[in-house]
Design goal:
about 80% helix; mainly alpha
C-alpha cells in the first residue's frame, strides 16, 4: 500500500511538471520572447529544460533505487542473522 502511494505521488509530480513545461501561456514567457514567433532559440530552451528535468529525475530515481536495494539487503541479512541465532539456541538446548 505504501508503494502505491509513492507511485501515485510520482505520477502526480510528473503530470504537474508536464503541465508547467508543456503549457503555452504568456505568463511563462520572458519579456524578450513575449509575442515573438516560435524560433529555434525558444525550441532549444524548451528542450534544454526537458533535458535538465529528465536528468534530475533520473538521478533522484537512482537514489531511490539504491536506498530500496539497501533496505532489501538489510532485511535479508537480519533474517539470516535471526535464523543463525535461532539455530544456535536450538543447538544449545539439545546439548543441555
Amino acid at each position: 500500500m505504501k508503494m502505491t502511494s509513492i507511485r501515485l505521488g510520482i505520477v502526480r509530480a510528473l503530470a504537474a511538471a508536464a503541465m508547467v513545461i508543456g503549457g503555452s501561456s504568456s505568463a511563462f514567457a520572458c519579456p524578450v520572447c513575449f509575442g515573438a514567433l516560435e524560433t529555434g532559440m525558444i525550441d532549444g530552451a524548451k528542450l534544454g529544460v526537458l533535458v535538465l528535468l529528465a536528468i534530475t529525475l533520473a538521478v533522484q530515481g537512482a537514489f531511490l533505487g539504491f536506498f530500496l536495494y539497501l533496505r532489501k539487503h538489510a532485511k535479508r541479512n537480519a533474517e539470516i542473522e535471526l535464523d543463525a541465532e535461532w539455530l544456535a539456541l536450538q543447538g544449545s538446548s539439545r546439548t543441555s
